Amino acid sequence: MSSEHPTATPRTASYEADPQQVHRVLLLYSGGLDTSVMLKWIQDEYDAEVVCLTVNLGQPGEDYEVIRDKAMRLGALECHVVDAREEFAREYLAPAIKANALYGGGYPLFTALGRPLIAKLAVAQARSADCDTIAHGCTGKGNDQVRIEATVATLAPELKVIAPVRSWQMGREEEIAYAREHGIPVKGGTEAAPYSIDDNLWGRSSEGRWIEDLDHAPEDDVFQLVCRPEDAPDEPEHVELSFERGLPVALNGERFELVELIERTAEIGARNGVGIVDHIEDRIVGLKVRDIYEAPAAAIILTAHQELERLVCTIHQNQFKPQLDRQWAYLVYAGLWWEPLRGDLDAYMDAVNEQVTGTIGLKLYKGHARVVTRSSPNAVYDAALASFAESGGLFSQAASPGFIELWSLQSRMAWRLRNE
Ligand code: ARG
Hints:
The chain is an alpha/beta fold. It has 14 helices and 14 strands. Bound molecules: arginine (ARG). Arginine is lined by residues 111-112, 142-144, 196, 198, 205, 207, 281, 291.
């Protein structure tokens, strides 16, 4: 490692910290190798105090007491653990559900939705602990640095940011050596680099190792959340999701708050192998990458929501909304959560979702979730009209030829002009 000052290079952005002015740092701490090394390194390199913040967004199997102890042992001034599951579900996942949010046709945005909330909480904690700088563990190649720094720069122009992983030029070997030297426990062995994992209530992603080899089919050990479809039960499982004004409120007839409903739906999906996505993705920083996603709750809830929306909307709404859905997902993926257009789009999503009330039944079977039943008081559907029976009521078959003649008029004229 170089003995020069960490940011001897000139600053590019207004929010990048001048090393002289870094006195107390709010570190977004996960307890993993990168942020543990950062915790020590910031104290040494900047001669600064470090306050840690760990955010619970529903990542399974995390022991927050262990993380807090580790931070304190590594010299943190304080370590705060914030349970933000409720806020995450209500303020971030709920609008995503109303917008059927999928980026690139397959990624339900769980990381992209979590980052602005994590950064917002970091700003609040930094202010209350009198920190001048926020530190995060993102690399210089990903989307997460964009999401976190855009949030901090938007919400707190007075705070600066440091991103040591982006600048310290330590590889994994050097990080492990640094950890050994400074008494930082390295869990899970050090031989093979692990997958790079991020997870929360809405899903889990894996990157790195063989995943970077595009013609390498998924190895079994990557699936830690969803059961491999071939190992799922031989009997299909039926689930019913009920929605009120665009949000899921009941699972198989039993009402739950959103967090618990998502957790329970995830469990059912996971045991049936539902929600695996092997995704090629265009990052906002220009790279094309591959991610393996496991998002069982999103796979079920978004499928059901979209089906119900189609049922209660008109043909014109159904033609239009997917374009806005796509724009919403792109903005959020791209780290522009605080962009006013997102709020404008939400207003439209809310308006449409006023009608999205009803129940969707799905059959889950070895990796698939297929809609099999629908019901809604707001369905723009009349079984009598749709059936092949006689004319009657609002629908006159006798009117159809007149409709067809006018409907096809311009197309017929154009065809004739070009072909005669
Ligand atoms: N590709 C996804 C995204 O950009 C997942 C990123 C996961 N982040 C991570 N630090 N492992 O949102």
